[in-house]
Design a protein that fits this description.
Number of strands: 0
Order of helices and strands: HHHH
Largest sheet: none
Radius of gyration: 29 Å
Structural class: mainly alpha
Number of helices: 4
Helix content: 40-55%
Length: 94
Amino acid sequence: MANARKTSLESFRKRQKNNGNVRVEFQVRKEDAELLRSVARALSDPTREMETRSLLKARFIVPSPVGLKALLASAPLDGIELERSSDLGRSVNL
């Protein structure tokens, strides 16, 4: 009997893995358990999945630092003159 239970559990876990699911286990305070269960249900519900994922990512995932080049590329440059004048200043006798 134990062997049959073991093989059925292995086949269940294999099906879950093929579907892209993983088992996550962690410990939280008792009052937070229902909150985390509802988050897990929302992530597994096809109608709420995308909205829930985007809300969680926006709130909890730290964006990667942006380099200077990317920051300058994304800056609004409307109305800013980027050409420098060719004024060489005053003439100096050496």
